Amino acid sequence: MKATVRSLFSGGGRSRWRNRPILGQAESASRGNPQSLHQADAGTFDSRVRMGKDIGISEASEAHPRHIKSAESEAFLEPHRYKVVSGPEGFLPPAAASMGVALPEQGEGLIEGARVPAASALEEAATRLVNAKHPTFFPGPLILWNWKDGIAEKAQALKDLADTLGAKIIPMPDYRPKYPMINPEIEVNPNHPNLTIWHNKIDVCVFIGVHCHYANMALKIIRGGTDCCTIALCAEAGHEDAVISLRDFALADLHALTAAVNRLKARG
Predict the structure, then answer these.
(1) What is the pTM of this model?
(2) For the domain that residue 211 is a member of, what is the CATH number?
(3) Which of 55, 102, 117, 139 is the most buried (most CB within 10 A)?
């Protein structure tokens, strides 16, 4: 067992990552996978600094690619902007924040890592849900339990939206790791959400009512190991590791999403 674990970090298991192209090198080196341009060898501080300089990050903030020093730098970065798209991206997908994806401001959302008006993100979320073969909602404890005023109404609105889509609801009732196996028919767990997605063939999933730190962990695992499109409807600041994310998501926004779904379904 020890030999098997060691092999992941030495020899052939490690050499695959050493030759990944640095951001800004020719796209032909990506072997057809746009994400691999951004999976640079960041195993040392020096390589992270080099990558930061390539995309115009000031030396004072080299370790934090989200801090772009000017609008000119942003314009230069755009052709190589890291896109948060459906995977599978790999065994260790990078945190989107480390690749320069910033959280949306108030009135904004995220689509594939780009900040857009919230209305555009909501419309895109509705479109992905309507076109999905197996859309599924993953409600977390913040909406499963009636812990403060307004939660019961929000939960009912979520159920109405799921019914409109004919979508499944698979709850995330708690966050404890459960080994050796969870029951993917009835729950999803942030420590291994890929099991539930694979079992149910989910192509679009929606996180709502999940505490942010657990949502971020699960979203990375999903992007790394599945081809599922992730949508995060966050009551706080949003989630940069989701394909689509909306922040400050309240009951009125849930009604607006349902209205957008109904409008798209009526169009056929």
Answers:
(1) 0.70
(2) 3.40.50.1220
(3) 139
Does residue 260 form part of some domain? yes
| Structural contact between residues 146 and 152, judged by C-beta atoms closer than 8 angstroms | yes
CB–CB of 205/228 below 8 Å? yes
Token digits of residue 150: 């307004």
Query: Does the residue 86 lie in any domain?
Result: no
208 and 239 Cβ atoms separated by less than 8 Å: no
Residue indicated by tokens 């889509």 = 165
Q: What are residue 162's DSSP bridge partners?
A: none
Cα–Cα distance for residue pair 113/77, rounded to 1 Å:
13
Q: Is 123 helix (H, G, I), strand (E, B) or coil?
A: helix
> Most distant CA pair in the chain: distance in Å?
58
3-class DSSP state of 233: strand
Contact by Cβ (8 Å): 215, 233: no
Based on the domain organization, do 77 and 120 belong to the same domain?
A: no
Provide the b/e sequence for 239-264 (b: ≥16 CB within 10 Å): bbbbbbbbbbbeeebbebbbebbeee
* 204-208 and 135-139 strand pairing: parallel
In the chain, which residues have pLDDT < 50?
A: 1-79
What is the H or E stretch that residue 115 is in? strand 114-117
Q: What is the pLDDT of residues 214-267, one digit of tens each?
A: 999 999 999 998 999 999 999 999 999 999 999 999 999 999 999 999 999 999
Structural domain for 178, as ranges? 108-267
Query: Is the same domain home to 70 and 117?
Result: no
Q: What angle do CA 200, 203, 207 make, to 5 degrees?
A: 90
